[in-house]
Design goal:
The chain is an all-alpha fold. It has one domain: Transmembrane di-heme cytochromes, Chain C (Fumarate Reductase Cytochrome B subunit, Up-down Bundle), CATH 1.20.950.20. About 60% of the residues lie in helices and about 5% in strands. The chain has a two-stranded antiparallel ribbon with strand order 1-2. The longest helix is centred in the last third of the chain and has 33 residues. It starts with 5 loop residues before the first strand and ends in an 8-residue tail after the last strand. The model has no long low-confidence stretch (mean pLDDT about 90). Bound molecules: protoporphyrin IX containing FE (2 copies).
């Protein structure tokens, strides 16, 4: 038997969501940088599906999976960040206020990333939003001629929005890398200051219960 009492925090779906996201993000990033368009599009579709699931689970899911449980006011987030400097931050059973904010920012960035990926693909005439598919999105063909005078007067509508959305898609992918670096830094700092292994908690779903923890 275990010496210390542990408490269930992350349900199996949150854990499967997290580690699938890690896997498919790596596949999408690497295939995006190479010429593996089909692999890339499928990894992207899977990520879009994972995010859709997480948005729903954030509303109807288990206690610590729900947004209402880890979205805090900016003042509370600031206070938590300050308390890190004192090296005695308050312990949270679910996401701490800074981690919770990071989760929301990452989810939003992944939405923009998947959407601009779909628009880039559509501008190349491929994917579910392409011209001629049941759900054509005309903004995929955004006119980026203003920065591209060489193509002035080009009537080939299919490729017009291509560079425009691809540029934003690439920018978002790189911003996402930055967020992931901050995410990993946050997980590391929080793990050290609280003396607990957060990555392991995301695998087993359990954390050790502290005397200071409020059971709300
Ligand atoms: C091997 C690298 C990674 C490790 C060790 C890791 C670790 C963790 C841990 C420990 C948590 C829970 C934080 C807490 O206790 O409050 C978490 C949450 C999260 N991480 Fe990661 N992470 C990694 C990579 C990534 C990547 C690449 C992404 C995005 C593509 C990501 C997105 C998220 C999201 C969205 C959550 C929120 C989980 C939820 O509530 O559904 N992580 N991660
Ligand atoms: C959500 C996770 C995704 C990540 C991390 C990601 C990442 C990337 C990266 C790093 C590039 C290379 C940019 C460059 O260097 O020019 C790229 C390009 C591209 N992505 Fe994505 N992407 C994602 C989703 C999608 C989706 C859902 C689609 C559409 C089905 C898509 C379609 C494209 C297209 C068409 C390109 C242009 C490059 C090419 O044609 O090979 N992406 N992506």
């Amino acid at each position: 038997m275990m010496q210390t009492e542990s408490i269930k925090v992350w349900d199996p779906l949150v854990r499967i969501f997290h580690w699938s996201l890690v896997l498919f993000f790596a596949v999408a990033y690497i295939s995006g940088e190479s010429d593996l368009d089909t692999v890339h599009a499928w990894a992207g579709y899977i990520i879009a599906g994972l995010i859709t699931f997480r948005l729903i689970w954030g509303i109807i899911g288990t206690k610590h999976a729900r947004f209402s449980g880890f979205v805090y006011r900016p003042a509370v987030i600031k206070q938590y960040l300050k308390s890190l400097l004192s090296r005695h931050p308050k312990h949270y059973i679910g996401h701490n206020p800074a981690g919770g904010a990071m989760v929301i920012i990452m989810l939003l960035m992944l939405i923009v990333l998947s959407w601009t990926g779909l628009l880039t693909y559509a501008a190349e005439g491929k994917g579910p939003l392409a011209d001629g598919s049941p759900i054509t999105i005309s903004s995929a063909y955004a006119d980026d001629d203003w920065g591209d005078w060489k193509n002035w007067g080009d009537s080939d509508r299919k490729h017009k929005g291509d560079d425009f959305w691809e540029d934003i898609h690439e920018l978002t992918a790189n911003l996402m890398l930055l967020l992931i670096a901050l995410h990993l830094g946050g997980v590391l700092i929080s793990s050290l200051l609280h003396g607990e292994n957060l990555p392991r908690a995301m695998i087993t779903g359990r954390k050790k219960l502290r005397s200071e923890d409020e059971q709300h």
